[in-house]
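does this look right to u?? BES version
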Amino acid sequence: MRVTVESGDITKAETQCVVVNLFEGVTAPGGGTGALDRALDGMIAELIASGDIRGKAGELTLLHTFGKIPSPRVLVAGLGKSGEFTVDKVRDLSANVARFMRARRIAGFATITHGAGIAGLDAAACAQAIAEGALLGLYQFDRHKKTDEDAFDVQAMRIVEHDHAKVAALERAAERGVIAADAANFARDLANEPGNVLTPTEFAARAETMAREAGLGCKIFDREETAKMGMSSFLGVAQGSAQPPKFIMLTYHGGGEAKPLGLVGKGITFDTGGISIKPNEGMQEMKGDMSGGGAVIAAMMAIARLKPKVNVTALVPATENMPSGTAIKPTDVLRAMNGKTIEVTNTDAEGRLVLADALCYAVQLDLSPIVDVATLTGAISIALGNVAYGVFSPDDALVGRIEAASQAAGEKCWRLPMFSEYKELNKSQVADVRNSGARGAGSIAAAFFLREFVDDRPWAHLDIAGVDFSDAEKGVQVKGSTGIPVRTLINLVLGLGEQPLT
Ligand code: BES
Ligand code: MN
Ligand code: ZN
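got this back:
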């Protein structure tokens, strides 16, 4: 779908459908909705009076205009209570509207900037949310299905702004929304692919193709190269799989001599658990165990298009976690790139094993700050459900940046503590650390494990295991991969570009 911004009068738009809005409880609509109501001889006000339109959140009312205006249809979108309206709601509303158009086979529509009028939200933020929401909401993963005869694509969304002076700013904002949504949808495509399609080799190939098209640097390290680099922890996980592992590195150069930021993502293309094999129930979700890696790769695509004045390096250790005659066993000891030894007490705690070497390499490359993203622990969804991802970091300033980036993206996060007492959880009798331990505080133990490999650099860990998949269609989310936290990462990098951590 194409997204454009233009100045003009929404009542005069030549389109298949015009979208306006209404807050709950408003009887005399104002702004664009008011102008349209007048052009329709008070039809909207009458439907409000009769109780047919109430402005409830999620309410969508389609009207026919019978030649009163150029557009044959009007969609009135309910915004809910005016005091509770936010940019997140604009994004979700736009997703719902776009899916409504698709269901009604309406190929093109024009919309006002929901939220920018009486709701008083920042107009540019709303334009971005409208573009982002529509593209996220229309996302479908259907490449393995036979072509649906009935399939219908919405071709165009026009954002119509009456104030000509605002158009340029709204255009830039909408473009940012398109770039962010495209990136999140790229991450969704990667995570939705089954494990037999998105092998480590295919994952690396897709990253490489994207990098070439976007103008990013790309280097793929194979088994031999990573062995030479000393990544025995990563290779320990990979040794049980018939698929060759790949270590993916992408680089973006926009900040001269500045130290590059590091984005590190877990890239387990399928997690069976290994010898500590998972039960069948829920194992399907493990095709998405590379979501963290997919998210950092997708964020790099957006960064290449947005061109902030920073340097960024993304690292993704990609492998399957399989049980086999060559697989690592519980009690095996591995040595990470920084020399620390790891007792593998559970082969299903493989994410931290592959991330250990990726974090060591990030330190070796002198990346700062380092932010890793991983579907690391089932425990995080016990703590936070599917509402927010967990943030772990000893660095208050970095956490503040992540929280701001997440809030602006509408991708909720919540910080969990890193009290030093938890460090004990990773104590091993035979090695420097062990990869799993007590029953409690599993997500925090995992964060402390990762911390062993960042050499006290500015670092944060995002555990997205609760939010990487959605089992329902709701607002910007559709069933399957969510693409979280791609838009957080984009905001974070842009923010660090404007104002580095001190
Ligand atoms: N990939 C899983 C975590 C996961 C669970 C992601 C559910 C998404 C949904 C991870 O590799 C894992 O298996 N973690 C173990 C760690 C344990 C063995 C210490 C877990 O959470 O059970
Ligand atoms: Mn696992
Ligand atoms: Zn895993």
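The chain has a mean pLDDT of 97. idk if thats expected tbh
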